[in-house]
Amino acid sequence: MRKSLFSEAVRDRALSIAGVEKGRIAADIGAGTGFITEGLVRKGLQVIAVDRSEAMLAEIEEVRAF
Ligand SMILES: C[S@@+](CC[C@H](N)C(=O)[O-])C[C@H]1O[C@@H](n2cnc3c(N)ncnc32)[C@H](O)[C@@H]1O
Fold first, then answer.
1. Tens-place pLDDT, residues 8-64
2. Who contacts 49 (Cβ-Cβ below 8 Å, separation ≥6)?
3. Which of 29, 37, 50, 52 to mutate to test the pocket of ligand 1 (most atoms within 8 A of CB)?
4. Residue 1: pLDDT above 70?
5. Which of 13, 31, 50, 51 is most buried, judged by most C-beta within 10 A?
6. What is the DSSP string of 28-59?
7. DSSP-assigned beta bridge partners for residue 26
8. What is the Cβ-side half-sphere exposure of residue 65, based on CA atoms within 13 angstroms?
């Protein structure tokens, strides 16, 4: 579902424009399946991911293993 919304290239461009920096801590509020969280982790940030949906939080567990 996430890739039908926007691609990893678009995500990476958005994170680049946002000026995210390795070693920083980010809060991903409404993290959903963790698509943005994953992009942040890949860039070397620590991420606090928050979502009100237990089902979404279960999916995001996969990102923790990254
Ligand atoms: C469009 S999805 C987010 C997509 C996600 N950012 C990604 O990169 O794939 C919106 C998410 O926000 C969550 N959400 C909506 N209202 C919220 C709230 N008040 N507190 C926490 N999460 C919320 C929903 O459960 C849903 O998973």
1. 999 999 999 999 999 999 999 999 989 999 999 999 999 999 999 999 988 887 766
2. 28, 31, 34, 37, 57, 60, 63
3. 52
4. no
5. 31
6. EET-TTSHHHHHHHHTT-EEEEE-S-HHHHHH
7. 47
8. 5
